[in-house]
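Figure 6 in text form: structure in, sequence out.
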C-alpha cells in the first residue's frame, strides 16, 4: 500500500513532465514556423504579413499564456530584425538612389558648363575672326553728311574717310568730286589738325591736345599714332588685308581686302607736296595721325598698299595731302 501512492506519484510526475515537454516542443516549432513566416512576409513587404502574425499569435494563444508571452517576444524580436533588414535595404536603396541622382546631377552640371564654355569660346572666336561688335551711322552737323562707324575692340572708328571741305588745304583726288564721294577728301596735316599754316614749317607739338579734334566732327578726334597702333595690334597679323575694303582697290594688283572688322579702309591716294600732283588713287591709302615727328616739318601717318598685307607707320612732309579717319572720344 505504501508503494502504490509512490508509484502513482511517480507516474503522474512522468506524465506531467511528458506533457510539459510535448507542449514546449510544439510551441517552439509552431512559434518558429509562424515567426519565420512573418519574418519572410515582412521582408517582401507582403500586405498579408500582418494577418499572419496575428494568426500566429492566435494559435499560440490557444496553447497557454506563458507560451503566448514567449511567442510574442520571439515574434517581436524577429519582426524587429526583419524591419531592421527592410530599413537597411531601404537605406541602401535611398543611398544608391541619392548617389545616382548626385552623379547624374553632377554630370548634368558638368555638361551644361562645358556646353556654355564651348558656346562662349565659339562666339569669341567668331567675333575675333570676323565681324563687328557694333556699328551704325551718325550725322556731321556741320554739313549734314552721314557717316558709318564701327566698334573694334575698345575703340569706335569711322568706317569711311572724312569728306568735310575746309576753307583751304583739302582736295578731291584729281580734283574730281566723285573721288571725294568715294574716297573722302585729302588734307594737309595742318588742315587736318586745324592749325595755322605756319605749323607746316615749324614745330607745334605744344598745341596738340589729348584727343585732338582737328577737322573731325564734334565728339570725334584725329587718332594719335598710339591709337592707330592699338587698332593694328588688336587685329593682329595681316592687319592690312583684314582692314581693307572688299572693293575699290586696284583689281590688277588683287588689292582688295577681306574687311573682317568693317573698318572699310579705302585707297584715297595722295597729293604730292613737291609738285602738288595727285597719285595712287585706288592703290594706296594714307591716313594722318595727330603726331608730330621730331623734324619740325614732318608728321606721322599710317599707310596700306594694294600689295601690302600690313599697316605701316611712318612720317612725311606736312604739306602732303592724305586722308583722315576719325575716332570717337
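Output sequence:
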Amino acid at each position: 500500500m505504501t508503494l502504490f501512492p509512490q508509484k502513482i506519484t511517480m507516474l503522474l510526475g512522468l506524465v506531467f513532465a511528458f506533457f510539459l515537454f510535448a507542449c514546449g516542443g510544439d510551441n517552439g516549432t509552431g512559434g518558429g514556423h509562424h515567426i519565420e513566416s512573418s519574418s519572410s512576409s515582412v521582408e517582401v513587404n507582403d500586405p498579408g504579413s500582418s494577418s499572419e502574425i496575428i494568426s500566429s499569435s492566435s494559435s499560440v494563444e490557444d496553447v497557454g499564456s506563458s507560451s503566448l508571452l514567449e511567442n510574442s517576444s520571439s515574434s517581436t524580436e524577429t519582426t524587429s530584425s526583419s524591419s531592421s533588414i527592410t530599413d537597411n535595404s531601404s537605406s541602401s536603396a535611398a543611398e544608391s538612389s541619392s548617389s545616382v541622382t548626385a552623379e547624374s546631377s553632377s554630370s548634368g552640371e558638368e555638361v551644361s558648363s562645358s556646353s556654355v564654355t564651348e558656346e562662349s569660346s565659339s562666339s569669341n572666336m567668331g567675333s575675333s575672326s570676323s565681324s563687328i561688335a557694333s556699328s551704325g551711322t551718325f550725322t556731321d552737323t556741320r554739313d549734314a553728311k552721314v557717316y558709318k562707324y564701327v566698334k573694334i575692340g575698345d575703340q569706335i572708328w569711322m568706317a569711311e574717310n572724312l569728306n568735310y571741305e575746309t576753307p583751304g588745304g583739302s582736295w578731291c583726288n584729281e580734283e574730281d568730286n566723285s573721288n571725294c564721294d568715294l574716297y573722302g577728301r585729302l588734307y594737309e596735316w595742318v588742315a587736318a589738325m586745324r592749325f595755322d599754316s605756319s605749323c607746316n614749317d615749324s614745330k607745334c607739338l605744344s598745341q596738340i591736345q589729348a584727343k585732338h579734334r582737328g577737322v573731325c566732327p564734334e565728339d570725334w578726334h584725329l587718332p594719335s599714332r598710339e591709337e592707330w597702333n592699338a587698332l593694328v595690334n588688336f587685329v593682329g597679323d595681316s592687319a592690312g588685308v583684314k582692314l581693307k575694303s572688299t572693293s575699290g582697290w586696284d583689281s590688277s594688283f588683287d588689292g582688295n581686302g577681306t574687311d573682317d572688322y568693317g573698318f572699310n579702309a579705302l585707297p584715297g591716294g595722295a597729293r604730292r607736296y613737291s609738285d602738288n600732283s595727285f597719285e595712287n588713287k585706288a592703290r594706296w591709302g594714307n591716313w594722318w595721325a595727330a603726331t608730330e615727328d621730331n623734324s619740325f616739318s614732318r608728321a606721322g601717318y599710317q599707310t596700306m598698299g594694294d600689295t601690302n598685307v600690313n599697316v605701316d607707320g611712318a612720317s612725311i612732309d606736312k604739306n602732303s595731302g592724305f586722308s583722315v579717319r576719325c575716332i570717337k572720344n
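Caption detail: Residues 274 and 320 are 8 Å apart (CA to CA).
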